[in-house]
Amino acid sequence: MAKHFDVKTVWKEGMVFENHIRQHVVLSDALPELGQDSAAGPKELVLSGLASCTGMDVVSLLRKMRVDFTGLEIQIETQLTEEHPKVFDEINMKYIVSGKELDKAKVEKAITLSYDKYCGVSAMLKKNGPITYSIEYAE
After folding, report:
1. What pLDDT sits at residue 2?
2. Residue 86 per-residue DSSP state
3. Could you write out the three-class secondary structure of 88-125?
4. Which of 12, 9, 7, 10 is CA-nearest to residue 22?
5. What is the pLDDT of residues 1-50, one digit of tens each?
6. Domain 42-138 adopts which CATH fold?
7. pTM of this structure
8. What does the pLDDT read at residue 29?
9. Whose CB has fewer CB within 10 Å in the chain, the N or C terminal residue?
10. Residues 6 or more apart from 5 whose CB is under 8 A from it?
């Protein structure tokens, strides 16, 4: 059976919205030229969703592969197209994986599996434009 999602969004003031997701509330706001910059903007939340989605995949896969890692950071850079609707041009993701004596082949496999197979947010965004990624290692 397909997973069902319910989100309720309520306008508060200016460009501030309350997004009710299960028992959680996430605020969103516009940048200073249109809003108060009191919370992340909707497009930033999409990028955060992408990083969280692939991050959850990678952590789960690394654990299953018994990779002894101590940290994972995902940095995303992109820009918007000039024309409306303004969408992400190309999304560049950098995975920074921390740990001593990491099995780099397993790390790369986990990230590739997330990118190619598991991350639904990535799959949705790839329909709009390219997503690239790189991997860095830290101790």
Report:
1. 84
2. P
3. ECCEEEEEEEECCCCCHHHHHHHHHHHHHHHCHHHHHH
4. 7
5. 888 999 999 999 999 999 999 999 999 999 999 999 999 999 999 999 99
6. GMP Synthetase; Chain A, domain 3 (3.30.300)
7. 0.95
8. 98
9. N
10. none
